Amino acid sequence: MTPTALTRTTWPPCSRAAPTGRHRRTTPTALAEIAARFSAVNWQAAWDAAPGEIQWLIEPLIEAGQSVALYAVPGTGKSLIALECAAALAAGRPVLGNPARDPVTVVYIDVENRQPSLVERLQAFGYQPADLDRLILYSFPSIAALDTPAGGQQILALAVTAHAAIVIIDTTSRVVAGPENDADTYLAFYRHTVVPLRARGCAAAGLDIPALAAPMGSPPNHPSVRLPAGPMRPPAPAAATSTPPAGRRRPATASPAGPASPPPAATGPRPGACPPTDVSAG
Question: What pLDDT, on the 0 to 100 scale, is given for residue 245?
Fold first, then answer.
């Protein structure tokens, strides 16, 4: 048997050329340039700026600079109560048991209600046009989907230009492009629309029906508020009673006056999300 001849393999010398393409993006210099785009928390400044108490827009529903999902089955008054809250915030009037506060600017995106219906409701609440200068409402605007970067940028532009304290969206499922029952759609909405608003200290409130609202509550600090099943009509505003939270704890429930109705069945938020808050209206 003839032994197999061994051959010597000659390897090319290591290349000392500068990295190109994908490899260039992982050099220390390139990584340092990427890291320089981000700013870490200045802990001393954060300590100095931290408020001693929770800053509420409407206690215990909407905290300043935070986000909330307001949801209920169709016809139970989501739009009505959202419009009442928006008008009261803009006019500095009492609402849901909260005392009158300094007015703030509200940006309201409405793709559910026609202007005649809005006027009728606001008149029933006792408002006149002069009271609503700080309620900046866009009725059926031609806006990009809010689960896309373009849509999020447009909402941010409206909020920042108006110096808004809160953006209210009625209804969230009408202004997204992804599948309505897909959690990824609402995670994209949260990333592109809600996060930039919160980063600017602007609160966000989205209205929807239970099956579609649950994914919105999955990001941290994004609580959900469930309205009861039962019609609501102006001009009887719901009067809320609540106990102020201790320290920085977020209240678990809010119980406005009136008989409570059992909440509609809905898929709850994923583990780790804030629990829903039951809100009943008489």
Answer: 42
